[in-house]
Amino acid sequence: MKYCLLLSILLLRGLTTLAQNDSITHTLEEVIIRENRMKIPFSQSSRNISIIHRKEIETTPGRSLQEILSFTPGVDVRQRGVSGVQADIGIRGGSFEQTLMLVNGIKLSDPQTGHHMVNIPVPLSSVQRIDVLKGPASRIYGQNAYAGAINIITELSDSFHLNGGIYGGDFGMRGGSIQASLPIGKFKQNISFAHDASEGHWHNSDYTINTFFYEAGIALTNSQELKTILSFANRDFGANGFYTSSFPDQWESIQTSLAAVSHTLEKGNTYLQTRAYWRSNKDEFRLVRDDPSFFQNQHTTNVYAIEINGRQDTDFGTVGYGVEGRQEEIDSNNLGLRERTIMGAFLEHRMNFLKFGDIRAGLYSNYYSEYGWKHFPGAEVGYQLNPWLRTYANFGMSFRIPTYTDLYYVGPTNIGNEELKPEKAINYEGGFKIIKQGFRAEIVYFNRHTDNLIEWTRDDDESPWKPQNFNEVTFQGIETGLQYQFADSQKDFKFREVSISYNYIDANLIEKEGIETRYSLTALRHQLITGLQLMFKESFELTAKMRYIERMSLDPYFLFDARLDYNRLKQFSFFTEVSNIGNVDYVEAGTVQMPGRWARAGMNFRLK
User: Fold this and answer.
1) Could you give the angle at the alpha carbon of 432 between the alpha carbons of 429 and 436, nearest 5°?
2) How many CB atoms lie within 10 A of CB 353?
3) Smallest Cα–Cα separation from 244: which of 461, 470, 522, 85?
4) Distance, CA of 293 to CA of 392 (rounded, Å)
5) Alpha-carbon torsion 131, 137, 140, 142, what sign?
6) What pLDDT shows up at residue 437?
7) Which residue from 147, 89, 76 is spatially nearest to 120, judged by alpha carbons?
8) According to the model, what pLDDT value does residue 59 have?
9) 420: number of CA atoms within 13 Å, CB side?
10) In 3-state terms, what secondary structure has residue 105?
């Protein structure tokens, strides 16, 4: 840890020195946070939100969404292997079941298990931005946004372009992608395909991933638009150590489909969107890869949903409202044939006070066919102390219903619990945000308390894991971060950007004596992330990322990754990147030994 802190101090010292040599001549572009109902400028939001732009996606040393997210403050990405084969994502000490993933506001919750939450059927080449909302988001997005939500955003273009690339690397790694924007008059459409494969970095860790994404939209009038999404992802992989170390030849095959259609009316002070979507996930799991008769699970889940979301600007502020209906079904040889119905209603109001202050409050009410009605209030208040300094505070209730795996699973090492109740938590947050020219900084305190946490437990090493509603736990912590973008200059060698963030989380868990827990005490305790980007002769871009990760009850580790791009924005470009440059021995999830130093390289093209 001391080496990480020393490196961070040196970075900040270099930042101060360089700031004296480069004059700031620009401001950071304002970003609009578009939720399903409200839209709020980032500088005026009263939440802790991280935004990953397209430039960061392209230059970060990582070729999957999971790898990109691992450099986000407060986000705990636990990969099983590389290139996003399978990963669990937690926010602020929350488990992978407590994070909601979305694509353009469409919920990707899987009723079988949260392990499928990051099976995103969108190639990285089509992702324009990623919004990471930390803290309770049930009032905004509904159930299962317990510890936070991650919204993957794509955009339709009104001009033609064709982008693509190929890459190769260690472990027989290879892949490629192609993405095209093909507008025809008022009809816009994007289509993309990506292929990723590897022989694996250790026994039975090979994988093949194919992803297809199509998005189209047409302006019906000046105020109305119709959009559709069709996407599919297939992933087959060896799952050595994914769920148990007792069977090193586990194997899994997953197919995820998403189809959605939406109509948007935006006229004057009125915004109204109607959306319907279907998400399907097929999962085949074998305990012994070449012997399905030994133990095999086959699950198919289908989610059908319809939403109506609206916004109305008035003289007294902005009112947001919405309703949703959701049907979840599963057909499984292990979990059975089951279904449940979920209905919800949103209502919130945002208004200004005392010239420089604003307040937002609302309620989400949910009906579950198994649990009846539940209600989740929340409120945010912010005050602009001056044009570049904002202070804010918020509170909210969050909620998660058990998955079908939590309730009904039967296996050699895991057994579900039909008596489980939904878990809920009370959350508080307060912080300061600075946005001034090329500089951004934020410091946040957060607190989340629950007394009915769903946790997998066992009595001893010989007993199977089983979930229970008995733990009382308080997660609290501090997140700090800053980012500085240097002005353009005529120098051949110049600094482009520097960033640093530090997160500390404390978990006060009250356990029953003699009971072992699986997830609660493996959350992040310390997370330090630093980043640096340099440019040489307007052609070479070097991006370096460093992470110190210390989880509760697990060994800490330090990772250093780097990527070099040549002519990134030109017609033809090349890149090379190296991960885990220090050749560190570490584990992120399960008993999967992550690879030591490894590299990949490739080329990309852009045609307009």
Assistant:
1) 145
2) 11
3) 461
4) 57
5) positive
6) 86
7) 89
8) 97
9) 25
10) coil
Q: What is the C-alpha separation between 320 and 312, in angstroms, rounded?
A: 7
State which amino acid sits at residue 118: V
| Residue 15 phi, psi dihedral angles, 5° rounding | -60, -45
Instruction: Report the distance separating Cα 362 and Cα 346, nearest Å.
Output: 8
User: How many alpha carbons fall within 13 Å on the CB side of residue 85?
Assistant: 27
- The mean-pLDDT minimum among 13-27, 211-225, 357-371, 519-533 falls in 13-27
Helix (H) or strand (E) holding 63: none
Residue 23 has pLDDT above 90, yes or no: no
Confidence band for 359, pLDDT divided at 50, 70 and 90: very high
Instruction: Name which of 561, 591, 589 is nearest 577 in CA terms.
Output: 561
What's the count of helices (H) and strands (E) in the chain, helices before strands?
A: 5, 32
Residue range 385-429, pLDDT digits in tens? 999 999 999 999 988 999 999 999 988 888 999 999 999 999 999
Extended beta strands in 125-186, E state: 129-134, 148-153, 161-169, 173-181
Q: Residue 138: which H helix or E strand, with range? A: helix 138-141
Greatest alpha-carbon span in the chain: 69
Indicate if the pLDDT at residue 576 is higher than 70. Answer: yes
How far does CA 176 lie from the centroid of its chain?
23
What is the chain's alpha carbon radius of gyration, rounded to the nearest angstrom?
24
- 8 Å CB contact between 412 and 295: yes
Query: What six digits make up the tokens of 67?
Result: 């790898």
CB 555 within 8 A of CB 493: no
Pairing mode, strands 572-579 and 598-607: antiparallel
pLDDT at 507 over 50: yes
- Segment holding 189, helix H or strand E: strand 187-198
pLDDT tens digit sequence for 438-473:
899 999 999 999 988 888 888 887 788 888 887 788
Name the pTM for this structure: 0.93
Give the pLDDT score at 276: 98
Confidence tier at 351 by pLDDT (50, 70, 90) = very high
- Which residues are within 8 A (CB) of 462 and not within 5 positions of it... i.e. 6 or more apart? none
Q: Under DSSP, is residue 65 helix (H, G, I), strand (E, B) or coil?
A: helix
**Containing H/E element for 404?**
helix 404-408
pLDDT digits (tens, 9 = 90+) for 297-350: 999 999 999 999 999 999 999 999 999 999 999 999 999 999 999 999 999 999
Strands of 199-295 (E only): list them: 207-219, 224-238, 251-267, 270-286
Residue whose pair of structure tokens reads 């949703």 in the numeric block: 324
CB half-sphere exposure, 6, CA atoms < 13 A: 3
Residue 343's beta-bridge partner residues? Answer: 325, 367
d(CA 380, CA 378): 7
Block residue for tokens 């404390």: 506
pLDDT of residue 280 exceeding 80 = yes
Contact between 165 and 177 (Cβ < 8 Å): yes
Contact 130, 152 (CB under 8 A): yes
**Angle 271-273-278 from CA coordinates, rounded to 5°:** 165
